[in-house]
């Protein structure tokens, strides 16, 4: 009888452990609209292991960019990017595909602009792009979304948001 009860206990423990094991995070596709001077949504939550596609859309009348990082860098007393880049810090290189207003698609490697370091996607008015990546453990924590166009004026005007990555 003791063996029977022990086997039932062990079988129950194994089933409970299997039920509690972490399942891979579901893929997610998020649309981020850019305008003067905001990201919508302004807060994004992701989980380690998720495959993420960010669909960026510039609905504004000005060029806007997306950078993700921590610790805003200042250049000539103006915000100009981040000390720690979201993708570089984690050793992840996202895939970026641009779509023009005419529907033409083309790929780009990571963009780097004068005065900026790290990952950046810049979009003309009406332009769209997708950024696809898998969230890694090196991305856990709170990050800022930012646009530093016009020598940081967009960021100063409030074009920033929050990205939170949970384990």
Protein architecture, described:
This protein is of the alpha+beta class and 167 residues long. The protein has one domain (24-166): Immunoglobulin-like, CATH 2.60.40. Helices cover 17% and strands 46% of the residues. The protein is built from 3 helices and 12 strands, in the order H-E-E-E-E-E-E-H-E-E-E-E-E-H-E. Strands 2-1-4-10-7-8 form a 6-stranded mixed beta sheet, with no helix packed on it. Strand 7 (95-99) and strand 8 (105-108) form a beta hairpin. The longest helix is centred in the N-terminal third of the chain and has 19 residues, at 2-20. Mean pLDDT is 85; it is low at 14-21 and 108-114.
Order of neighbouring strands in the sheet with most strands = 2-1-4-10-7-8
End-to-end distance: 43 Å
Helix content: 10-25%
Please state the average pLDDT score: 85
Q: Indicate the overall shape.
A: globular
What is the percentage of strand-forming residues?
over 45%
CATH topology: Immunoglobulin-like
Give the total of beta strands: 12
Domain count: the total is 1
- Global structural class: alpha+beta
CATH class: Mainly Beta
Sheet of most strands: 6 strands, mixed
Order of helical and strand elements: HEEEEEEHEEEEEHE
The CATH architecture term is Sandwich
- The low-confidence runs, each spanning 5 or more residues with pLDDT under 50, are 14-21, 108-114
Q: Mind telling me the C-alpha Rg?
A: 21 Å
CATH superfamily descriptor: Cupredoxins -  blue copper proteins
**Count of helical stretches:** 3
């Amino acid at each position: 009888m003791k063996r029977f009860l022990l086997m039932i206990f062990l079988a129950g423990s194994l089933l409970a452990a299997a039920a509690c094991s972490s399942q891979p995070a579901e893929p997610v596709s998020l649309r981020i609209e850019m305008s003067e001077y905001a990201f919508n949504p302004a807060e994004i939550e992701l989980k380690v292991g998720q495959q993420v596609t960010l669909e960026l859309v510039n609905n504004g009348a000005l060029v806007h960019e997306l950078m993700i990082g921590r610790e805003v860098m200042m250049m000539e007393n103006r915000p100009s990017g981040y000390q720690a880049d979201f993708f570089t810090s984690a050793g992840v290189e996202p895939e970026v595909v641009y779509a023009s207003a005419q529907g033409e698609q083309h790929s780009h490697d990571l963009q780097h602009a004068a005065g900026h370091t790290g990952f950046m996607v810049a979009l003309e008015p009406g332009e769209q792009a997708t950024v696809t990546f898998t969230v890694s453990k090196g991305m856990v924590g709170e990050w800022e979304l930012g646009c530093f166009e016009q020598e940081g004026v967009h960021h100063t005007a409030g074009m920033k948001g929050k990205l939170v990555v949970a384990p």
